[in-house]
Records
---
Amino acid sequence: MPTVILNQRIIRPLLLFGFALSFVIFYLYVAYRPPIALYADLFEAETKESKALLHNEIGNKYVKFKQLQGAGFNNQAQEIMLYHHLALQTSRIYVYQPLIWRPRGEDATVPLSAFMRGLTEGAISESVFDEVCPPDEVQHVNLRIEDTDQWKHAIEILSRKHRCIVVDDKVFTWNFLSSSGIHAIWPGFQGYIRHHFKWSDNVLAIVNRTETTLNLRPQSAPDSAPGAPYIALHLRRGDFEDHCKFLAATHEGFTTWATLPLLQPAVLPPALDTYNATTVLAHCFPALRRVLGAISAHARARPHLRALHVLHDGAWDHPGVFLAFYKLAEALTNAPWAEAEGWTGGPMTSVTQSADVPVKRGEYDFAVCVDVELAARAEVFVGNGYSSLSTQVVALRLGRGGKVDDITLY
Ligand SMILES: *[C@@H]1O[C@H](CO)[C@@H](O)[C@H](O)[C@H]1NC(C)=O
Ligand SMILES: *[C@@H]1O[C@H](CO)[C@@H](O)[C@H](O)[C@H]1NC(C)=O
């Protein structure tokens, strides 16, 4: 019966392999499963709070915008914050919508209050919008003009007296977000961040846990507080290799706040020339040597700063990012290398990364916010002017009174 024996020899390891594989898949499924019950509770609480607000605030005006669907978290967050700011500037109640959780598909919605608490306070959920603004009482408007005066124009239209406005077009197009048109928004937006930006408690709890576990001390904490002061580096790789070639070919510049004149001293040479692809690629997808140079300059100037936390987008489909991280970590912790670079305080003593953030089951959705906040709290931030995550970090830092000297855009 040789065939049977042969089959058993093959089948048994196959079965074992199959079991092991299904276990791994099941484990990943459970670990990465979103907190469904929490989200359901928050959606319900959002509706309840919105209804309470409607009953208390007679005579208010409302605005609902056409928002991005399914872009990355920071693209959505950035746009939502700009819309919220625009609503507040024109004394309207912002009608908020859920975030679209792209990794789980175009229809996967998550409650905004699970991530950013400041946006849902004093605002109403779209789930109750029809109650306060029935369709026949809604004024539909378009706000977009292809002009740097976009913001002023939007303010003018929304300052009109209609009680309920629904905006049918997108105001913050990619073009506008990388144009000088957004510079006029900055002074007010800085105040917006200071007064209205707030993470959810879910996010803040993980940030706290991470600071303890990874021994990181926020810049705002006193020197006597536990943990080491640190540099945060945002390494944007993943899909950027191809994306940057596209941006170079289409002559795109930095995004949003990275274009602010006040930030230009933070931009590592060469100066960005969108008609010189070499400079676009140097900023968008830099060689690791260039990234090391940016960190080295800060480490040389600040001998007490010997911890580095690296935010990156490494994942099973972008394993090269981990390789880049390990190469950086190896150089930065190497004493002869640090000495050759002229660091008097010795090499880095701690290099941690996004993958070290202690997220528990059901917390994976919050990891991106934790990354942003850790970078916003670092003593120094080194990031990418083409990335909305980096520009979000820059906005939070400057909005909270941070200095341009503590930022480098490589
Ligand atoms: C995080 O830590 C700070 C300082 O220790 C504390 O004041 C705050 O309440 C903590 N926040 C959360 C959400 O645990
Ligand atoms: C493009 O920029 C690089 C780096 O600054 C520079 O060396 C090169 O001469 C520039 N090329 C052109 C065509 O200007």
---
Amino acid sequence: MNKKFTNNKDIVAAGKKYTMDTYGQYEVGMVKGEGSYLWDADGKKYIDLLQGVAVNALGHCYPDVVKATQEQAATLTQCANYFYIEPGVRLAKIIIENSCMDKVFFSNSGAESNEGAMKLARKYQKMQGHPERYEVISFKQSFHGRTLATLTATGQDKSHLGFDPLPAGFRYALLNDMESVKQEYNANTAAVIIEPVQGEGGVIPCTEEFLKELRAFCTEKDIVLIFDEVQVGCGRTGYLFAHQGYGVEPDVMTLAKALGNGIPVGAFCARGKFADVLKPGNHGTTYGGNPIATATAAAALTAIIENKLPERAQEMGAYLQERLNEMKKKHPVIKEVRGRGLIVGAVLDLEDAHVVTNPCFEKGLILNCTAGNVLRFVPALNIPKETLDDALEILEQVLTEIGK
Ligand SMILES: *Cc1c(COP(=O)(O)O)cnc(C)c1O
């Protein structure tokens, strides 16, 4: 019954027959990963600049992380959250000692972390005697997840389509525009949720000036400032947490993606007076903070810190932007290059960047396009320079071949 599929054709056929068609997949079955490489079931090798969508900051199957998962799987796999769990407490200590945060709650995903953060904000406002403050301001082109509340917080119409009525209490401001935030603010505002660098929305960094003004505004109005660092936390932007590169401290920070380097785990952390808002019975999850997930994440985060991967993300990100800017001179299809650390976007003068990413895929390069026309580079933070060079050579070849 549980016989393995052994080639692309069989995997694709079974995938089409038995799984929901929500991703519009490439017609291959992936079976193995190592570092910055991925292999499909027919043995074709790919350079992976997507890494599980910005998840494997250490690349596929990083040995210390694999060891932590294996050892924990054979020791204690799942345990009710009615008890403290050793690896969970260990991971919490690592996060708190390396951030401005005071306490953490573990979840399973980014969306679940953002839900928890918004629950915390509403509860805080109720405790302050402001039950009318329930609204959350988010931003156009943002992405916060796929659950009903987080898809509503997501400021993109295409995420909302077909799912109304949407939960009440969400308003959308323009990124890097303080006047727009002030316009959306009212007596019902509980919180602002923002990505320091918008990922899915097309790799759009916040400006330092804007985040500083936003911080001051939220403090003045006593509204909870939530940073969604699900995609850009854990070293990606050149700092362990993205806000550290901005010199701005949020009240609540959410994490997931790179936290477990591929094992599902999320977290939301809170600071100061926000750290003890949630009380027994207010919030919970069965799997969140599960021993395997947290033992794995503790190993992953330790490897990111000890190997100084945030610094490496700064260096390699600068190199990547430089190379793309060179390419831009020869290939006018590249309109703009932007990003922070190793989340880099190349904006293309095309309606659909698949014209570029599909031929790259054929040539063995996995490169993502987001927001329609933006190439999003989110490689492993430890990607060897030569591998990145190989990837850029394929990209340049494709741009030349399509005459752009
Ligand atoms: C991926 C992502 C999410 C959702 O995370 P899931 O684990 O898919 O629920 C939320 N916010 C941001 C910024 C993301 O990039």
